[in-house]
Amino acid sequence: MTLHLRNCLSTSSSHKLFTKFWQRQIQAAYLSNASNVEEELGSIIRDVEEVDKPLGYKDKYFLASNHPGKVLSKVPLPDNLIKAAEAELKDALMKDLRKKADRLERHLRGRHPPPSDSVARELAQKYEEKFRKSSVNIEYLSEEEQIKYENDIVQKVMGKLKKRMYHWEPLKFSEESSRAYLLARLAPNYSSLVRIFTELRSRDPCFSPDTILDYGSGIGSTYWAASNVWNLQSIFEFVNIEASTIMSQLALRLLETGYKDDLDRLKRVSFRQFLPNTHLTKFQLVVSGHSMFELPSTEDRLNTALNLWKKTDNYLVLCEQGTKSGHRILMEIRSFLLDATKDLPDTEKCYVFSPCPHQVSCPRVEADDGTPCNFPVKYQSLLYNEYLTETLSYVVLRKGVPQNSEDLSWPRIVRDLQHKRGHSHCQVCTGEGTLQKWTFTKGKHGESGLYHIARKSDWGDRLPIELAKEEQEDETPI
């Protein structure tokens, strides 16, 4: 059950819900694992109107610190993955490898997609016009001088383009660079996917994929993450698509070392270099993690995304680093797939399951303020042997049409909260597709539980709130 602001903001006595005292009583009862919670608190719960349960969710009570909109924010690495990585790196010169891993990490974070041909032509034309205006009149030049003049213009334009345009190259891996990638990116990639999969499992507990396709599988982070969230021992098929043979061999060694006592689970794991052409074979979960930057053009990215969408029976998960470029690429794909499937039958349509609480254009893109929509996750770094923070941008798309029971419209916190004495400020993305700044105060929202939920929420969490219609129309901050 969600919180209705129209009811929670009411100050009439009929809508007073829980005092701070009774919240402490509930918390104490849960923490002590008292067997007679129902008996002790039954009279309190019965006094609360069913429609106005401040901390109720599907007829269960939860603490504000564990409300149903919470997402995983800190992800440790499993012991068998750490041991597998250590075994792979035991013969490496760690001092040199750390330097390479640092350089690779900086390169990946500053990466941009390749510029499109239309952008390159437009920029080249702009520079050519500029250089011709500042040059001599070619009518007074000889034929030989005109040829030299045209060559000079071409050289000047190409020189400007090299300075101004991003020089994109696909990643190429050797044995050494693949180990540097392992050291730099295994933990953040794994943690990002675990965070996404954990929320998916929490919101759709009946979903447990039997078939998974991982596009751009790299060193196998998706398998490790899915294995952590769901039990993959009985999985029917797990297909890894990776163009680099060196990376696939490294991923396989990690799996064989990490699951050396349970190698039977790897019998259904396969590696391929290219996506299968047929769409007859469907997968319950299709994942593309940190791989769209490897495609040379916007057209290739959109065609690949559509190809992946046709191969899923249920969910498509796309994830990139939380940079402006990463967010922009995902929003291009999101808009493209929503538009491409809108006229298809309901079973083939596409809707956004997460993180957006709406199905319209991203308000960050509409604002065009250079700020990406991203979310933090703490990961256990192999490079520095401590917990660091990675920001990720992602989108989870699902086949079908939205169901009322999915709570898709819960607002999501999109920036770090500011907690002051007696009040909390948070910026949220709402079900109407707008960014709003809300303030929860202890005096106004304390009794309803909203204030305590806000105090215990973090960047990336969803707030279990449904705005009343008049609140949505006014769009006034709380």
Q: Mind telling me the C-alpha Rg?
A: 27 Å
Mean pLDDT across every amino acid position = 82
How many helix segments? Answer: 16
Largest sheet: 9 strands, mixed
Q: Count of DSSP E strands?
A: 17
Topology (SSEs and partners):
Elements: E1 3-4, H1 5-8, H2 20-31, H3 37-46, E2 56-57, E3 60-61, E4 74-75, H4 79-89, H5 94-109, H6 117-133, H7 143-164, H8 175-203, E5 211-215, H9 221-229, E6 237-241, H10 245-258, E7 269-272, E8 283-289, H11 298-310, E9 312-321, H12 324-340, E10 350-354, H13 363-367, E11 375-380, E12 387-399, E13 412-413, E14 418-420, E15 423-429, E16 435-441, H14 442-445, H15 450-455, E17 465-466, H16 469-474
Parallel strand pairs: 1-17, 4-11, 5-6, 5-8, 6-7, 8-9
Antiparallel strand pairs: 2-3, 9-12, 10-12, 11-12, 13-15, 14-15, 15-16
Helix pairs in contact: 4-10, 5-8, 6-7, 8-9, 11-12
